[in-house]
Design a protein that fits this description.
heterodimer, A: about 325 residues, mainly alpha, ABC transporter involved in vitamin B12 uptake, BtuC, 2 strands, globular, B: about 350 residues, 2 domains, two-stranded antiparallel ribbon, about 70% helix
Chain lengths: ~325, ~350
């Protein structure tokens, strides 16, 4: 049975993790922003910028982990810009976010073209190599599927418990969630709502940029145009699917990535019977379907999209 | 820092703010040009000449502005009601698909009827592409930002399939393109020896129509009311779902017409590179115009000028064409900030 073999192949599960990793970074990043009450539609552009910045850092001779830090730094800068617009100036979060996406992606392409004026084939770099976890990677099937990945893939899996711990077990996480649920109450506690939101947007944007960098320095080894290809928007759908909970975000990202890995393999199994475009549509359609399923039970942060001005009363 | 609404909004500020903001965008962009090592004034000179410097340049700019007016109106109408339709790109392709289905020989009418018929078909198809998201939004409260965005990818893949399969023109030597629109459906040229066609006038007509609709009709009032304060509008007896549905059909229809001007006008047939992101640029057009339908015409011509001018600038001096997108993005953000200062003042404490 071909279809059964597909699910039992270690390559399928390894690919699922590989596809899920950038989505996890992006989804957790967006989730942190939205938990603090700020929708960040800049995600698509910030991921593009992260992909470009990370790749560029390595291309110019920097280290791989330096590239991750640099991408995070650049992402945080764009997060700061978004925060100035929507948190401090109270502009429309939708409009500013789209503006940030326009700016960040066009700037990435411009900078890429400036540094490499006429390259038809994008130059390659030494990307992260998979490391085998001693002992575990020798287990048949599981070793290849789960314990032979690049360090950034493990990092992606590691940020989920970290995000859960910080959001639910620390004062700073409580302040972040309050900024998204009831900023007036947060203000009454003597905590600066604007500062909390700004910080959350910057941290979230840094994570998005790292998700973009994952594509250029871990999954592939080059930057090319249209690389993000809607992954940022998928992350926004995943945040809704996850009902703004980090644990469910992991589940959503894995489900989505599994379907994506499946459709690539199913294309080959189906031969030419079904046009390949229909397989490529599946991930997008599934995202929409997931939102429909979740819509009735959805409980979004109460102060999402609402600007806060100091001294506001209910 | 405290941000307070102004008591009276001076009309001077309304006009001067966006102009100043665009000046700021050009100023910021000149740092990037300085980095390329080219002369800033020379580069902007090439940009301006390439966009408006000759009869041909002007016709190219207005030709590029035509679909942008439609997609800009689509975004302006939808955003006014806070219906975030980011799917104009997909709706444009649905309009173009309609032009291919009915305009390549299936229906034969004299030109005087065929051209309006194509626009109606395109509008219908554009609205159809938004039917799913608006249904999900009104009935199931599913966020339309994500559904309209993701449908762009689905629709583009669907068009890709059609162009490689059932709709591929057998005469196209294997290129993924559809058959040409019949002669009766081709939009007549406005200027000799240029690509500018009658679609530009239709676009301006559409802008005036949308402006009048928003300003003088009950529907327009209801759309503005829902956007300004949905709860208040409901208490005033306005059906929010009905209004959102109406807005969606209007917005999708306008975006679909952009597909007509490209398929039946500029290009002549449907391909996958029909639109270099007109749907997304339309959002920038609407934002620059502060969602004003008549302002959309001006900002679409401005944006088209930047794109056309940047093309010829990058041929003349060594600056990547992506500078156009950077310039547009900076303009959008700085106009956004400047318009806030029209309505609000900042008090430092």
């Amino acid at each position: 049975m071909d279809w059964l073999e597909l699910f039992l192949s270690a390559g399928f599960w390894a690919a699922t993790l590989r596809i899920a990793a950038p989505l996890i970074f992006g989804t957790i990043g967006e989730l942190i922003c939205e938990r603090a009450g700020v929708l960040n539609l800049g995600i698509e552009g910030i991921m593009t910028m992260g992909a470009m910045a990370g790749w560029m850092w390595v291309f110019q001779g920097g280290s791989l982990w330096g590239a991750v830090m640099f991408a995070a730094f650049v992402g945080a800068l764009f997060g700061l810009l978004h925060a100035i617009f929507v948190v401090h100036l109270g502009l429309s979060q939708h409009v500013s976010g789209i503006g940030i996406t326009l700016l960040a992606s066009s700037l990435s392409y411009f900078l890429f073209r400036m540094i490499l004026p006429d390259s038809t084939t994008p130059p390659k770099i030494e990307a992260f190599k998979p490391i085998d976890i001693p002992g575990l990677s020798d287990i048949p099937f599981f070793g290849e599927a789960f314990f032979s990945h690049t360090p950034m893939t493990y990092l992606a899996l590691a940020i989920i418990p970290v995000a859960i711990y910080i959001l639910y077990r620390t004062p700073i996480g409580l302040a972040t969630r309050m900024a998204g649920e009831n900023p007036v109450a947060l203000e009454a506690q003597g905590i600066n709502v604007l500062a909390v939101r700004t910080g959350a947007v910057m941290v979230g944007s840094a994570l998005m940029a790292v998700g973009g960098a994952y594509l250029t320095i871990s999954a592939f080894d080059a930057f090319f145009f249209g690389m993000i290809n809607g992954r940022g928007w998928i992350c926004i759908a995943l945040v809704i699917f996850a009902s703004w909970k980090p644990g469910r975000a992991l589940l959503g990202a894995l489900l989505f990535a599994g379907l994506d890995a499946f459709q690539v393999r199913a294309q080959q199994l189906a031969g030419g019977d079904i046009p390949y475009q229909f397989f490529l549509m599946l991930p997008y359609l599934l995202s929409i379907a997931a939102m429909v399923v979740i819509a009735k039970r959805m409980r979004y942060p109460q102060a999402l999209l609402q600007p806060f001005r100091r001294g506001d009363r209910i | 820092m405290q941000i307070e609404p102004r008591e009276n909004i001076s009309p001077w500020r309304v006009v001067l703010a966006p102009v100043t903001a665009i000046g700021v965008a050009f100023f910021l962009c000149s740092f990037l040009i300085a980095w390329t090592g080219e002369s800033i004034l020379e580069a902007y000179g090439f940009l301006f000449k390439g966009a408006f410097g000759s009869r041909f340049a002007l016709s190219e700019t207005l030709n590029r502005a035509t679909p942008l007016i439609f997609t800009g109106l689509a975004a302006a109408v939808a955003f006014r009601a806070k219906f975030w339709n980011i799917g104009a790109e997909g709706q444009l392709y649905f309009g173009a698909l309609a032009a291919t289905l009915v305009g390549t020989g299936a229906i034969n009418l004299p030109p005087i009827l065929m051209v309006p018929f194509l626009f109606v078909a395109g509008a219908f198809a554009g609205g159809l592409a938004l039917l799913g998201p608006v249904f999900l939004k009104t009935v199931l409260k599913v966020d339309e930002v994500v559904t309209t965005l993701l449908l762009n990818f689905v629709i583009l893949l669907f068009i890709n399939y059609l162009l490689e399969g059932p709709l591929r023109d057998p005469m196209s030597m294997g290129w993924p393109q559809a058959a040409s629109v019949i002669d009766a459906g081709v939009l007549p040229a406005l200027m000799e020896r240029t690509r500018l066609h009658i679609g530009f006038l239709v676009a301006i007509g559409a802008a005036i129509f949308v402006w009048a609709l928003m300003r003088f009709t009950i529907w327009g009032y209801e759309i503005r009311a829902v956007g300004a304060n949905a709860t208040g509008a409901r208490f005033a007896g306005i059906s929010i779902n009905k209004t959102v549905f109406l807005v969606a059909m209007l917005s999708g229809g306008l975006a679909g017409m952009a597909g007509i001007t490209e398929t039946a006008g500029t290009k002549g047939y449907l391909t996958l590179d029909l639109s270099p992101g007109f749907g997304y640029s339309g959002i920038a057009v609407a934002m620059l115009a502060n969602l004003n339908p008549l302002g959309v015409v001006i900002s679409a011509i401005f944006l088209a000028g930047i794109y056309v001018g940047a093309d010829s600038m990058s041929r003349a001096v060594n600056i990547p064409t992506y500078i156009a997108d950077v310039l547009v993005a900076l303009s959008v953000l700085s106009v956004l900030v400047s318009l806030m200062f029209v309505q609000f003042k900042v008090r430092w404490r």
